[in-house]
Fold:
Amino acid sequence: MHIRSLFYFIGEALKSIARNGWMSVASIAVVAITLLILGSFMVLNYNVTLITEDVKEQVQIVLYVDEEASGEDRLKLQQKLVGHPQMEEVRFVSRDEALERLKRQLGDRSYLVEGYEGEDNPLRDSYELRTKIPEDIAIVAGEIKEYPGVDYVDYGSGVVEPLFQFTGVVRWMGLIFMAGLAVTAVFLIAHTIRLTVYIRRKEIMIMKYVGATDWFIRWPFVFEGLILGFIGAVIPIIIIYYGYNTAVAWAQTNIYFVSLVSPEDIIEEMVKVLLPLGVILGVLGSSISVRRFLKV
Amino acid sequence: MAKLLIEARNIKKRYQMGEVIVYALRGVDFTLYEKELVVVLGPSGSGKSTLLNIIGGMDRASEGEFYFGDFHLHEASERQLTYYRRNEVGFIFQFYNLMPNLTAYENIDLSAQIAENPLDIDGLLEQVGLSERRDHFPSQLSGGEQQRVAIARGLAKNPRMLLCDEPTGSLDLASGIQVLKLLRDFCDDYQKTVVIITHNTEISKMADRVVYLKDGLVDKVEINDSPLSAEQVSW
Ligand SMILES: Nc1ncnc2c1ncn2[C@@H]1O[C@H](COP(=O)(O)OP(=O)(O)O)[C@@H](O)[C@H]1O
Ligand SMILES: [Mg+2]
Structure:
């Protein structure tokens, strides 16, 4: 393509966008709405994923060693825990270490546990265990409970399972909702394109009579789709950026214990995903529609 | 003797309409010479537009041979036909067919952009009397003015022939005469071959040659030794 032609095509595309008025607005709006919905769900999904990962990080089994257990039992227990195929991390916390931790937690009031060092330490040796797959925690806890030298096992049952269930449901609902919206969006876009091309099939015909090659006819439409798709992507990116900033600011003052994905990361993802998607939607839409009418 | 521009032999055009086959052209012989103004006269449905589209390389005949110089249009590829339309043919239609989103100048430029030896656009605008209308959109122009833009567009690529399908069909008499005069002038001044399709017998009086079409066949061909000027025609 010559540079002169390139400018010509882009110029034609811009002219056409400006002069087609409301049809351009409609096309931009359809792309923008589609991508806004998609983008919003991506934001939701990123945060659900982050929160779930966070929780998973914190999910652990605490195994308390029986005080009466023999040295042999303790050794066997250690070996079995380390050898467990689903185990990710095995950390031994001695009763002395546990006491130190307690002191640290108590801070100013650490005097409360003063004098319990050494033989008088009421705490027990324990293991902090993490499974490779956090969701397996209940099963693993059930198994190791039966190991020799175990007093009891605690893994926050009653908290962890409902949480995993909840995030799972949120994610599935999001996916289903998104799939439904994707179908609607494709339908909307196809409809808009059909309308645009119906209005403009006469132009395509005229171009053919003038002796334009199919590509010469196609290029302005392709650029037009590209520009419309680009604008249609920039709008939701801006909306999501400001919307998400506001949401994060609100969350930080009201539910500060939840860590959210940073607005900078979100905007980066949006630009990386929505911008190309908008351009592809625009170009694909206009190319498909022109092709239908080039075969006259 | 004028030079032969186009020679078409035994052109047939069929359309399959469900079960039945409709013949738009049943075996037309048609010749065009350089620098002549030909009127193709025939009632509605006689196959005039079909013939013009085939001559202009927009449509293909179902049967028959068709030569433009040494160029065999009946065997041409899509690409060759596009090239032929682009450089050799200017079309003019009853309903002008201007791009609604382009100004008068841009409409002409569209055609000039892709042609090999385009003419000067502003010069053409002046000749069709629309210099001050240069930046107006078709919707801001009268029918006659739109048709004059269309003529300038057809001519802008400097083609060998102008093919006009009922060019005055939707114009009042005065605008129609103006358009016909332009076509006659361009035929003479630029040495173009001009084909005018019409069902208006009056217009045939200004032709160098009249081809009568009837039911997809050439009924007769008349040579007019003393064509009238556009101003002498009236309907
Ligand atoms: N695309 C088409 N499909 C079917 N029949 C057609 C088509 N184009 C033209 N015809 C038929 O061919 C005949 C000639 O049409 P046309 O060339 O448009 O006539 P004219 O221009 O003289 O009025 C008509 O009977 C018309 O119905
Ligand atoms: Mg016709």
The radius of gyration of chain B is 17 Å.
